[in-house]
Amino acid sequence: MDDTARIDRFLKQALTGVSGAGAPPGLAAAVSHAVFPGGARIRPRLCLAVARACGSDACPEALAAAGAIELMHCASLAQDDLPCFDDAPTRRGQPSVHSIYGDRLAILAADALIVLAFNVLLRPSAGTAERRLALLGLLASATGMPRGIVSGQAWECERAAPLSDYQREKTGALFSAATMAGALAAGSDPLAWQNVGDHLGEAYQVADDIRDVISSPQELGKPAGRDAALGRPNAVGHLGLPAARARLQQLVAQTLGAIPECPGATELRAIFRAVIEPLMAPRVARPAA
Question: Which domains are delineated in the chain?
Answer without folding.
Answer: 3-280 (1.10.600.10)
